[in-house]
Amino acid sequence: MNNTVKLTISDGIAEIRLNRPDRLNAINPDLLAGLADALRNAQADPDVEVILLCGEGRAFCAGDDLKEFNQQSTGEAETRRFIEDIQLVTDLIMNGDKIVVGAIHGWAVGGGLEWVMNCDLAIMSESCRCFFPEINLGLFVTGGVSSLLPNQVGLQRAKELILFGEHITADEALKMGIVCRVVADKILYEQALNTARKVAELPKTARQNVKKVLNRSFQLSINEAMKLETDATVECFLDPEAMMRIENSRIN
Hints:
The structure is a single chain. The protein is of the alpha/beta class. It has helices at 29-44, 69-72, 76-95, 111-118, 145-153, 155-164, 170-176, 188-201, 204-216, 219-237, 240-249; strands at 5-10, 13-18, 50-55, 99-104, 107-109, 121-125, 129-131, 168-169, 181-183. It has a 6-stranded mixed beta sheet, with helices on both faces. A 3-stranded mixed beta sheet has the order 5-7-8. Strand 1 (5-10) and strand 2 form a beta hairpin. The two termini are 28 Å apart. The relative contact order is 0.15. The model has no long low-confidence stretch (mean pLDDT 93).
């Protein structure tokens, strides 16, 4: 595990914290590798009852790091590897035995919003904002969103949110079913930690079966959606128009 992700384990709770605060925890290969390692370790540790996922600094996750986009799209093999690493994180969150509680603040954008939707219980601070920027950048969504979002908000609303990158408030995310609860900013971490503790106190087999059965009730469609997403996203990453839009959208 590298220093872009912190893993601490205490009293049965594995806290996984994204740790690129200077880049709003934007996604790059190091963060993906660190997050995957942390999730694997937490899922495999018999002392861990529940996982708490959060972000350091001013945001949960600002999506792909556009400053490093060139490194992620040098060719089809490298691009496919990067996208598959993104999909691996979703697989580890959704298909692992342990409940994942998300503490979401600041911004949850693109891949960051996908991870919010992958959590079993996501709690969001009231000032948080989220959106899908991919299509406006000439890219495509991942994280099973093409299956999860229509199931949560309806097909036409899902298309609208993905196509236009509409900004979503925390209250709107709650009404859509993207998160389970919205709380005041100052108590977000406390509320998420308390939720994780409540999960840890539940009977282990029963809580694991809640996750397994509910997630797998639509899992085939998610797995197929992720395969289609990977192919579509690789194609978009390698599109010269996407590169031009990325160059014009970078924040220095």
